[in-house]
Amino acid sequence: MGRRIGCAPLPALSPRFQPRKLDSNVPGSVLRETGQHITRPHSFMGRESSIVMNLSIGFNGAVYAGTLITALSTAANASPFASSVLGYDAGSNAAAGYTDASTALGSAERFTGEGVFPSGVTPFNPAFGADEIVSVGSGGYLSLGFNTAITNDASHAFGVDLIVFSNAGFADATWTDSDPNNDGTGNTGANPFIFGAGGAATIQVSQNGTDWITATTTTLDLFPTLGYSDFVDATPASHGLIESDFTKALDPTLTAADLANMSFDDLRTFYNGSGGGVGIDIASTGLTSASFVRFLNESGEAFEIDAVAVVPTPSTLIALSLAGLATTRRRR
Ligand SMILES: [Ca+2]
Ligand SMILES: [Ca+2]
Ligand SMILES: [Ca+2]
Ligand SMILES: [Ca+2]
């Protein structure tokens, strides 16, 4: 049985590039995704601003409104994803063409291959675009800043405070060169193989962007990203409707072997709304809060970063729910 194995060392272009798939491109996929990238940040900011303005005009209780506006300002800045590149060095063997550090900012990818092989991001089909992921080669590093504090909060599921998205994926044990249908069910097989993870990353956090403390050194493999929770195909040709949650951690003590013989549908059920990613606990650093993350490549083999998400604290969630409440009021 053939199994799909990603091209070493990187961007898992390879086996997914079936001519059949190229022929079945969904018209509009590229435009859709492009439009999403262009419009989403602006519409989000516009929405937050209009909420605050509405509150300023509409509320007579000044103190209450002031409190809400403060909370909403927090919510407006509460993107869980990296917001700035502090520094980047590609190292000696980064994947050619994958050296735009700004690709690590903002949300993890939900759809990939625009203009080449448009397809949804699933555990069998990781993001691979040069405009989506950045490579960190031997001796290199990538450091990122966040608007939302990274906290070692006791409420965090599995102790996970930070979630890293890479371009690792499961080789599909059901895939064969001779099967023209490749029915899209996907399967991790009896001995799951994860391609594209690359070498181990030493992950550090910092409060000031200068002094760094190592949280862990880990391979960026589990859990491969899932872009939408309602995908039904292991390599979907179009976007889903239900965005997965990139801040919902999965149990980091699980190994690939624990996910043996899982179909795509099994994985989707197991993810249970999560977008996957590599869960990082900053407890070992002794820091209760940090604002920066750094990835060092001391392993030799390059690895890639798509995005990094901060797991929210209850105070962030309160701010976000207040924002939701204000939106509800406004609609009345
Ligand atoms: Ca994309
Ligand atoms: Ca923790
Ligand atoms: Ca990779
Ligand atoms: Ca990215």
**Structural class determined from secondary elements:** alpha+beta
Q: Name the hetero compounds present.
A: calcium ion
Distance between the termini: 59 Å
SSE pattern: HHHEEEEEEEEEEHEEEEH
Number of domains: 1
The helix tally amounts to 5
Residue stretches low in confidence (pLDDT < 50, at least 5 long) are: 1-74
Helix content: 10-25%
How would you sum up the major sheet?
Answer: 5 strands, antiparallel
Q: What amount of the residues lies in strands?
A: 15-25%
In angstroms, what is the radius of gyration? Answer: 20 Å
Give the strand tally. Answer: 14
Arithmetic mean of pLDDT: 80
Name the strands of the widest sheet in spatial order.
1-5-12-9-10
Shape descriptor reads globular
Could you please describe the fold and organization of this structure?
The chain is an alpha+beta fold. It has one domain (14-331). Helices cover 23% and strands 20% of the residues. The protein has five helices and 14 strands. The strands form five sheets. Strands 1-5-12-9-10 form a five-stranded antiparallel beta sheet, with no helix packed on it. It has a three-stranded antiparallel beta sheet with strand order 11-6-14, with no helix packed on it. A two-stranded antiparallel ribbon has the order 2-3. A hairpin with a 6-residue loop joins β9 (200-206) and β10 (213-219). The radius of gyration is 20 Å and the shape is globular. The chain starts with 18 loop residues before the first helix and ends with a helix. Mean pLDDT is 80; it is low at 1-74. One calcium ion binds at residues 33, 109, 111-112, 114, 129, 132.
